[in-house]
Design brief:
Order of helices and strands of chain A: HHHHEHHHEEHHHEHEHEEEHHHHHHHH
Largest interface: A-B, 96 and 93 residues
Number of strands of chain A: 8
Largest sheet of chain B: 22 strands, antiparallel, barrel
Helix content of chain A: 40-55%
Shape of chain A: globular
Radius of gyration of chain B: 31 Å
Oligomer: heterodimer
Radius of gyration of chain A: 27 Å
Largest sheet of chain A: 2 strands, antiparallel
Shape of chain B: globular
Distance between the termini of chain A: 90 Å
Number of domains of chain B: 1
């Protein structure tokens, strides 16, 4: 009996031991650790879909535009980070300032590269020509903003992943702006080829991108126009470095001819419906008082007795629409840090205004500038069309704000938003004279005013200013911030994550003061 | 021999108690192994039931404070169910778990929170706290606690041992005399009042630059008494309102009164908005236990309840505990038993920090009657009426926002034990198999109601975790008394832990209409779920040999296999060795003064695994950064996108490794009148597993990989005195002293610091070359000599971002005393923490807003202690309200200005008890107690133990954190 018992014990023990051993083999443990909650791979279009949204929301409509609008005086920073940017106190030279945008930008670049790679190499995605073309266009778009903001910056070694998902280059090297712009143009050319005159189709096994493309629903002919439009924009950016200005200006006009025919064609993210919110709105709603009405902007509007003056501004509490004579603008560079002192921009509440990656009015302004530079005739008509397209875009934003206030503020008195019907009078009475005085200067001034809004276009105004300042002919708009004497940010400083973890960037960044002294390459700088 | 007083009776029957009894005290060590305390080669700390519950604290972490050395207990607040961080001998992990393993009645149970405030609350600076699961433990049901502080003590627990172990033995019928059941009932009530709160100025009204502004967030307006003369709102002056309603002498127009539909003309006065807001919380604790020892069976049945209402209206906790345990002897060899616990708890919480409930209480201008003016406008309970916008009016928030967690939990185990002596005297074999389960579900609700400023038309998150952990433990214990001198004990065992975790998550915002804060009323909804499994399989062995009750040597080893590491990096071996040498067993050293002396040394290696996952795609999320709302949310137009997750997992991840050694001595003098215990320990931790920040240009944000080194030197000293032991009175007191230096030697290459929580700045970080953790943010600009520089207005200048404070204290000292005079017993516990710093945003913003009492002297002059541009001492006077406001605005922009030294002394507990009846049949004790009633602290406005985060940042960062409480109460224990 005793023996019998110990046999049972022996069996029981060895059973437990055997179970213990088999329960911890690598295969069993792999199974235990399986992650059923996330996809381990997805077709390219699901990635590309967010490259578009993130480019619009995080890159175009995000921090780049917020800070550009301060530097370019579309708004005056009167609260926290924006006030410190306004007063050039810390923010412009700190590596933490643009890190969020930096992360989004490089995440977009990685994802766009992944999309292109999948469309070329993955059996499911091969043959998706439109998807791949969009990948090239958005890659070019993010690369261009990266170098416009940061000058020489990593690109060729960014976002390249090993098989196991780890980055191939832990500290991507810095590429020159010239090289990156070469790549931007190459990717746009590749996209144009892939789009096959607008006839391209997604033929891969994973299916077409369709409505996962929030811009154009996967329509090749629309993307083709956008690609040409972007070529025009980027050729203009590089004008100071042009080897043959005449050719480039003519190329710009050719590109624009192949691009947007109306605002319908614009490359814009128009998904905001109230539940999904415009980034400018989301910022102003979250950080009330960070922005106030810019004195320098009001000055420019006043000079032209601009119809936007009467329609675009709110009282300090942003609860009541105000007339032109009631505006209390915040002095640029010298404003108090206060949310209750100055009037506010109405467009800050344009909850449904689309984000413009490339607008029709921008192309018309580029066209006007190119024509003026080539001494062509008919510039005035183009300019007038540009102003009108700009007014129409502004109307969309103001109407959205107006509705938001009506829905959310008790006792809010609605404003009748009407700008575009005033264009002819405005042009004749207030623009024409200035245009005659200095064609390019007025085109740029009007472009600047058209870029004020909720569409995320302050970055392009900032690019124009730097390009024209470098040209040295005085075409740029006048900025009022007295600190610009020695503290105009010629560029944005590298993102903090690379300043910490990427040696080359850390060295290039130094103490961050270089942003006040070194323009980017296309604005006459060396890096 | 221990001195005994014996009543003189006709026949003396004296039982002689051996002194050795104290020294032969048996403690529970790793894996439930009972050993004589004197045999241990490492430090162990044990606490008994009465030490824990002397002041009726229903929170275990709170009940431990000041009573043990080498342990840092950091509560987050005094709110019911508030989280607290317990770390033993410093931190080993930067961002991972540093809290000890809890083992209750032989089985490891979950004690950590499921929700990390860093993840759920944007860096622990929004939302409400999350309780840790140790909150489920009822201190009243604890028989004893043993704390295994060092890695050698804990090494048998393998991969989970690196943070030390808290072994809890609950009350059971064991040890009772056989016979009738023993019933005990205890009940107490305590009244909790708010502890430290900011002192406010009571002179100046709402506004800025001396101008009254009824919607300003600041109190830099005119004198309150001057309000009737205000040009815009005064009842004495000619303005919009007096033109409309006529003059109101001595009064002023309050738009919020008008909005509430009340008489808008008010006579100015100063309001105590903070005092008005807090209420007296009440806590009821009841516990009932019946236990009995029968011929072959013992059982115990307990019920406990703790009902607490917090000092902030709407907050509170209800917890009910039930436990049954039994053990029966089946035969001479076989014993079987079980223990089963059921707990249900419900915690109502309030928000802190960025959108904290106190944000509108502490910052309310004294001229505004926060409690008196209705918090909503007339006719619409959802539209707020407050002194400012952007932050929810606290009274509105109480009615409209909800933060709750509800838990149902079961844990317990059943075991069978076989014991044989093989028919010999000197061989004992014990084989025990135990199977246990710890299963619970917690449901969380975070709800900002329709009209909240933290949302647009409402924002609701409902989510929860269901966790089940199964534990199988086999131990074979063999004891061999080889001869008079030698004794050998060998243990071998196997443990399998398998856990399943399921999460559901639903998030919705933008309600269609007011009055119904529900998922079904939201225009945007998102749901998701997660499930995870984890398995640990461990084999362990323990060999202990002793020689002549003098030399004790223990070797342990454990091989662990864990599922949550990458393939081929899953198995690890952890050894330990410890040696104890009782000097007083040497004949030559026996004397009358030194009753007992032991020296001990140990060495151990243990590790910690990380949660490795195969790299994956995730749905991108929008928000964070500047956004206080969720701006975008997939699906968009019915489509969802997926991108590679921002954190990369390193397929070569290996476990982090802690090597530790400790040396110590235990000495008793004069028959234990004085006893002291000293331990020095050193831990070297390398290959920490954490999310190493990457260059953003890689396209990823961080990588979960190994990196870094941290080391800790700890000195622990416990001294106990029992100077008086007589029939009339006895008195004992003791100190426990801890000095800990926890240095971060390095992080990953190129990484100087990593964030643990906070805003963009300031943050709490781990920083290479600094003690763990530090406060990081904008500094004062200093010249080469380290003097703070001022500008032409005499205001300090903001410098670069850098380390602005170190959090860990220089030392901690607990003081306990117990005094009995006749039948009265008085216990007290003091706790002293010296040094270390804390960031207090509440304090800094109190100055910025002009509400703090420091801003009361506005006519006066401030000269900032600094140097001017030319290097000379600053003498620029900042005089008058406008200049002072500019001064406080300037320093508020410099994070360093809100860092304060964080030394404090607290009277943790004081308790008086008296046995009303004590005889063979019945015992009745009554007691009165108070907790945290005396505080000396260097932090100016807030409690030094109120802070953000339920993780490693606890204790470092205060931001409208909920306050601590002082409690007064009384109760009774009845036993029959």
């Amino acid at each position: 009996m005793k023996q019998y018992k110990s046999t049972i014990k022996g069996i029981a023990l060895s059973f437990i031991a055997a179970f213990s051993i088999t329960s911890c083999s690598e295969d069993v443990m792999d199974k235990v650790n399986e992650n059923p909650n996330n996809a381990h791979d997805v077709p390219a279009k699901f990635i590309l879909s967010d490259v578009g949204v993130s480019t619009a929301f995080n890159v175009v409509g995000g921090d780049f535009t917020l800070y550009s609008s301060v530097y370019i005086e579309h708004e005056t920073g009167t609260g926290q980070q924006q006030w410190r940017a306004e007063t050039r106190n810390g923010e412009p030279t700190a590596s933490s300032t643009y890190n969020n945008a930096w992360l989004s930008l490089y995440s977009n670049i990685k994802n766009a590269k992944m999309v292109i790679d999948k469309c070329q190499n993955s059996s499911l995605d091969k043959g998706n020509a439109v998807t791949e073309a969009i990948g090239h266009i958005l890659l070019a778009y993010n690369a261009a903003i990266a170098t416009d903001m940061f000058g020489d910056t990593p690109f060729s070694e960014t976002g390249i992943m090993n098989e196991d998902g780890t980055p191939k280059y832990m500290q991507p090297k810095i590429d020159t702006q010239e090289y990156i712009y070469g790549e931007v143009m190459n990717h746009l050319t590749t996209a144009i080829e892939l789009l096959d005159g607008g006839n391209a189709k997604d033929n891969g096994l994973s299916g077409g991108i369709g409505d996962k493309d929030y811009f154009y629903g996967g329509k090749a002919e629309k993307w083709l126009k956008a690609a040409y439009g972007l070529k025009a924009r980027y050729t203009l950016h590089l004008l100071n470095r042009s080897k043959d200005t005449n050719k480039d200006l003519n190329d710009i006009l050719t590109y624009i001819d192949k691009s947007f025919k109306s605002a319908e064609d614009e490359l814009k993210l128009a998904i905001y419906d109230g539940a999904q919110k415009n980034p400018t709105f989301s910022f102003n709603y979250s950080r009330f008082g960070s922005f106030s009405v810019s004195e320098s902007l009001i000055e420019k509007l006043n000079e032209r007795n601009d119809p936007r003056l009467a329609q675009s501004f709110m009282n300090a509490d942003a609860e009541k629409h105000i007339e032109a004579n009631e505006i209390k603008a915040a002095p640029n560079g010298e404003a108090l840090e206060s949310s209750s002192e100055y009037s506010k921009s109405m467009i800050g509440y344009a909850i449904t205004a689309p984000t413009q990656l490339l607008s029709y009015h921008e192309l018309l302004f580029i066209k006007a500038e190119a024509m003026a530079r080539l001494d062509q005739s008919g510039v005035e008509n183009v300019l007038k069309d540009a102003i009108k397209a700009g007014f129409e875009n502004m109307e969309v934003s103001l109407k959205s704000s107006n509705k938001f206030f009506k829905d959310n503020i008790k006792g809010y008195e609605e404003v009748t938003i009407a700008l575009s019907d005033k264009v002819n009078d405005y042009y004749t009475n207030n623009v024409s004279g200035k245009f005659t005085e200095n064609e390019i200067k007025e085109i740029i001034a009007q472009k600047y005013l058209a870029f004020y809004g909720a569409s995320g276009e302050s970055v392009e105004a900032y690019n124009d200013y730097r390009r024209l300042k470098a040209e040295g002919k005085g075409y740029e708009v006048k900025l009022n911030n007295p600190l610009n004497v020695n503290k105009f940010p010629h560029r944005f400083g590298y993102g903090g994550s690379d300043v910490t973890a990427n040696k080359a960037i850390k060295e290039a960044f130094g103490d961050g003061q270089y942003v006040y002294t070194e323009p980017v390459w296309w604005a006459g700088g060396t890096r | 021999m221990k001195t005994q007083e014996v009543a003189v009776k006709p026949i003396l029957n004296i039982v002689l108690h051996s002194d050795a009894e104290i020294l032969d005290e048996v403690v529970v060590t790793a894996m439930g192994i009972s050993r004589e305390k004197k045999a241990l080669g490492y430090a162990i700390e044990d606490l008994k039931s009465d030490q824990l519950t002397q002041a009726s604290n229903s929170n275990l972490a709170g009940a431990l404070q000041g009573k043990v050395s080498g342990i840092d207990i950091k509560p987050s607040s005094g709110m019911p169910g508030a989280s607290s961080q317990i770390t033993i001998r410093g931190a080993r992990s930067f961002s991972g778990d540093n809290t000890p393993l809890y083992v209750i009645d032989g089985m490891p149970v979950t004690s950590t929170p499921d929700i990390d405030t860093d993840k759920q609350n944007n860096g622990s600076v929004s939302g409400a706290d999350f309780a840790n699961r140790a909150v489920d433990i009822d201190p009243n049901d604890i028989e004893s606690i043993n704390i295994l502080k060092g890695q050698a003590a804990a090494a048998l627990y393998g991969i989970r041992a690196s943070n030390g172990v808290i072994i809890i033995t609950t009350k059971s019928g064991k040890g009772l005399a056989k016979g009738k059941p023993q019933i005990s009932f205890s009940s107490n009530v305590s009244f909790d009042v708010v502890g430290r709160t900011p002192k406010q100025q009571m002179i100046y009204a709402q506004g800025s630059k001396g101008q009254f502004d009824p919607t300003s967030g600041q109190a830099w307006g005119p004198k309150i008494s001057e309000l009737p003369n205000d040009p815009k709102y005064g009842g004495n002056t000619d303005n919009e309102y007096t033109q409309k309603y006529g003059k109101h002498e001595g009064k002023y127009y309050v738009p919020q009164l008008a909005a509430a539909g009340l008489d808008p003309w008010a006579t100015p006065q100063a309001y105590d908005n903070i005092g008005d807001f807090f209420r007296t919380g009440v806590t009821w604790n009841n516990s009932f236990n019946i236990a009995q020892a029968l011929e072959k069976t013992t059982y115990s049945f307990s019920l406990g309840s703790s009902t607490q209402s917090g000092i902030i209206p709407g907050t509170g906790m209800q917890r009910y505990n039930a436990k049954v345990s039994a053990e029966t002897k089946l035969s001479n060899n076989w014993t079987t038993g079980f223990v089963a616990n059921y707990i249900t708890s419900n915690i109502d919480k309030a928000t802190t920090s960025g959108n904290g409930i106190l944000r509108t209480v502490y910052a309310a201008p004294p001229s505004y009657n926060l409690a008196g003016i209705p918090y909503h406008i007339n006719g619409d309970p959802y539209t707020q009426n407050s002194f400012r916008s952007s932050f929810d009016n606290a009274y509105w928030a109480i009615e409209n926002n909800e933060f709750n967690e509800k838990t149902n939990r079961f844990f317990g185990n059943a075991y069978v034990n076989y014991k044989t002596k093989f028919g010999t005297d000197n061989h004992t074999l014990n084989v025990k198999y135990m199977a246990g389960v710890d299963a619970y579900t917690t449901h969380y609700t975070d709800s900002y109601g329709y009209g909240s400023y933290s949302s647009i038309n409402g924002d609701l998150t409902k989510y929860g975790w269901t966790n089940a952990t199964y534990n199988s433990l086999l131990t074979v214990n063999y004891d061999w008394n080889i001869n008079e001198d030698w004794n050998l004990n060998v243990i071998a065992g196997n443990e399998i832990i398998q856990s399943y975790r399921n999460k559901y998550y639903s998030y919705a915002y933008s309600y269609g209409f007011s009055g119904w804060n529900h998922l079904d009323n939201a225009t945007v909804q998102k749901t998701s779920s997660e499930k995870w499994q984890k398995r640990t399989v461990g084999f362990f062995g323990n060999i202990a040999a002793s020689y002549k009750n003098m030399l004790y040597l223990t070797l342990t080893g454990r091989q662990d296999y864990v599922s949550n590491m990458p393939r081929n990096n899953r198995s690890f071996f952890y050894p330990s060795v410890s040696l104890g040498f009782i000097l007083t067993e040497l004949e030559a050293l026996k004397n009358d003064v030194v009753t007992f002396a032991k020296i001990r040394a140990s060495y151990a290696e243990v590790g910690q695994a990380g949660d490795y996952k195969e790299n994956y795609f995730d749905i991108p999320s929008y928000g964070g950064g500047f956004y206080q709302i969720t701006p975008l949310q997939y699906p968009i137009n019915g489509n969802t996108a997926y991108v590679p997750y921002e954190v990369i997992y390193d397929p070569n991840l290996k476990p982090q490794n802690t090597k530790s050694y400790e040396f110590g001595a235990d000495v008793s003098l004069w028959n234990n009148i004085v006893s002291l215990s000293y331990t020095y320990s050193r831990q070297n931790v390398k290959d920490q597993i954490f999310e190493v920040p990457l260059s953003g240009s890689t396209g990823a944000e961080s990588m979960l990989t190994n990196g870094g080194k941290i080391h800790t030197n700890t000195h622990e000293l416990a001294v106990d005195f029992t100077p008086i032991q007589t029939k009339l009175a006895d008195w004992s007191f003791g100190f426990n002293f801890t000095k800990m230096i926890n240095m971060v030697d390095e992080l990953a290459p190129g990484v100087e610091s990593i964030r643990l929580g906070g805003y963009v700045t300031p943050q709490v970080r781990a920083s290479a070359g600094e003690e763990f953790p530090v406060i990081y943010g904008s500094t004062y600009k200093r010249d080469e000599n380290g003097n703070i520089m001022v500008d032409e207005n005499g205001l300090p200048i903001k410098g670069e971002d850098g380390v602005i404070g170190k959090v860990s204290p220089d030392f901690m000292l607990g003081f306990n005393t117990s005094l009995r005079v006749w039948k009265f017993r008085l216990n007290a516990v003091f706790d002293w923490k010296q040094g270390g710093q804390m960031y207090s945003r509440t304090t800094g913003l109190g100055d910025y807003y002009g509400t703090s009492s420091r801003t009361a002297n506005r006519e006066g002059t401030i000269i900032f202690d600094g140097v001017k541009a030319d290097g000379s001492k600053n003498d620029i006077e900042i005089t008058g309200p406008i200049a002072q406001q500019a001064y406080y605005t300037a320093i508020n922009d410099i994070d360093e200005s809100s860092v304060y030294e964080n030394s404090f002394i607290k009277l943790r507990e004081i308790a008086l008890s008296y046995p009303v009846v004590k005889n063979k049949n019945i015992e009745l004790n009554v007691n009165a107690f108070a907790r945290n009633i005396l505080i000396w602290a260097t932090v100016p406005d807030v409690d030094p133990e109120a802070s953000q985060g339920n993780n490693n940042m606890t204790g470092a960062f205060e931001d409208y954190s909920l306050p601590q409480t002082a409690s007064y109460g009384f109760g009774f224990n009845l036993k029959f």
